[in-house]
Amino acid sequence: MSYEQSTAQPLTPENERLYSTLIHVGGIVIGVISPIIGYLLLKDRGVFVRDNARNALNFQITITIAAVVAYILTAISFGILFFLPLAVAVVNVVFSIIAAVAANRGEVYRYPLTIAFVK
């Protein structure tokens, strides 16, 4: 019995744009899970989708850390800083939509103020 080593077929440019857009939008809905899945499953299928998934993953990790810090500060201040978690959520939605639109146009979006965890 011989087993052939399967290699992932490259995605078409249209599919790369589609998956990249979905990865960015998925960050709004399910947070860091969408970019993790996208990066792990699609990183070898195209440079464009890999770059977008990596950028989205780094951004969602940064947003997750910011949300945890915001909730801790809100708890410590007994609710005085109640707007911080909301501000983090708004930043996530706004920048994820901007990134999704850029990916749909065929551009790799670099999120501002993002820590590069995955290189």
Automatic annotation (TrEMBL):
Please verify whether the record's keywords include Membrane. Answer: yes
Q: Which Pfam families does this entry report, sorted A to Z?
A: MamF_MmsF
The transmembrane residues are 22-42, 54-74, 80-103
Q: Which keywords has UniProt assigned to this entry?
A: Membrane, Transmembrane, Transmembrane helix
Q: Where does this protein reside within or beyond the cell?
A: Membrane
List the membrane topology term(s).
Multi-pass membrane protein
What InterPro entries does this protein map onto? ATPase_P-typ_TM_dom_sf, MamF_MmsF
In which domain of life is the source organism classified? Bacteria
The primary location reported for this protein is membrane
The keyword Transmembrane helix is assigned to this record: yes
Which protein, by its recorded name, is this? DUF4870 domain-containing protein
Supply the source organism for this entry: Amnibacterium endophyticum
